[in-house]
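Just scan this pair:

***
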Amino acid sequence: MAEVYRKPRETIPSLIRRFSRSVQAGKILEKAKGKLHRQKKPSERQIKQRAIMREALKELRRRLEKQGKYTDDLFHREKKKIKEKFGF
């Protein structure tokens, strides 16, 4: 934590400037922002579920293209059914 005390006869703007420099030097803001936007790593179960879902969607896309029925609307409807099946 940055602590700055006012020196005798020091102006307020100069005190604020010293405080800002000490905050920048200590990288306090970088650490705070890093914690603010930090994302937790996905669990092993989540990684496996995502991989299964990704493979299922690849297979769906291949199957629809092979049948010549691939449209975005149909793909999204089938994708929704797959998500319900896997519990997403």
Notes: Residues 44-86 form one domain. The chain has two domains: 1-39, 44-86. Residues 44-67 form the longest helix (24 residues).
